[in-house]
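Hey all, quick one. A colleague (J.T.) asked me to put the adenosine-5'-triphosphate job into the tracker so the inputs and the structure tokens live in one place instead of scattered across chat threads. No bug as far as I know, just bookkeeping. Sequence used:
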Amino acid sequence: MVRRTNVVLRRIYPIAPRDLEQAGTVSTHVRRELLALGMNPDVVRRASVVCFEGEMNMVLYSQGGRIILLVKEDRVEILFSDHGPGIADIDLASQPGYSTAPDWARELGFGAGLGINNMEKNSDLFKIRSRVGEGTVVRATILVGVPFF
Ligand SMILES: Nc1ncnc2c1ncn2[C@@H]1O[C@H](COP(=O)(O)OP(=O)(O)OP(=O)(O)O)[C@@H](O)[C@H]1O
Ligand SMILES: [Mg+2]
């Protein structure tokens, strides 16, 4: 029997490209939502790290897209989907230290090449799919451990 996984909370956040004023606000919202649900602080911390890095990458590298937060009874899922250049070599982009950040982003402290690695380390399940010239979809899942509800 396939167990039905109830969606406890769903939020959709649009992301505008290059909008550094807005960058970081989605992870702040996600953090707030998860804390309001009474989730474990470590799960909340990991989800907000994942969200921040994914959000920054969408702002810096894509032409915009959206982030979907799904809280299910046993997991938090964060989906990032964008239109943009895509990632030609996902393994390479995932390596710590690899970055194509432009100078203006480096001047602001981005471009260490640690974002995807950090997302992966803080997720239990992590998957990137991308098509060059079309865009990128990232799915990060954080398991809550004991069923949440
Ligand atoms: N959504 C995306 N669309 C296109 N390219 C991306 C996207 N996300 C990441 N990349 C590419 O993958 C590289 C590595 O990303 P990662 O987040 O690991 O490091 P960074 O953004 O360069 O630096 P940091 O995250 O440490 O500030 C980026 O430099 C960029 O080339
Ligand atoms: Mg990054």
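Adding what we noticed when we looked at it: The mean pLDDT is 94. The chain has one domain: 8-143.
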